[in-house]
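Recall the central idea of this unit: under ordinary conditions, the amino acid sequence of a chain determines the structure it adopts. In this exercise we apply that idea directly, starting from the sequence alone.
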Amino acid sequence: MRSAGLLLYRVTGGVLWVLVAHMGGPFWARKDDRAWSIPKGEYADGDDPEAAAAREFCEEMGSPPPPGQLVSLGTIRQSSGKWITAYAVEADFDAANIRSNEFEMEWPRGSGVVRSFPEVDRAEWVDCATARVKLVAGQVAFLDRLLEHLHQHDPTAREA
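Accordingly, the structure predicted from this sequence is:
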């Protein structure tokens, strides 16, 4: 299984801020730490991961990704076995007004009632140190890769 996503970032006063998305649905509703993700989604073998990342951002945030130079953050294998390819882009985005697509599932389990839930129920700009706690563990390495890239191009950028 493969996914692709976009990690939006901005540097303000030398502090790195990243856009993270809280996963929707009843399983994640009362969770905060390790319950956030970069906007991402699955794509089929042979599909272009950059195009998939842009498509999935649009589906989860409700608008196309902002324009900007994509920086490849490579691919990471999560403990679930899923491979995630991520790209970073320096851009601003209104996190308060997202409109995520929805998925359906039986809830409560065994009830026979199928309900709709947003894939992402909210998004926030957080500093890099906060993102390290909020992101699912398998995606934290993308922060390290982004920091490495930034330090090569702007040594003043820091986590906070």
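The domain at 2-153 is CATH 3.90.79.10 (Nucleoside Triphosphate Pyrophosphohydrolase).
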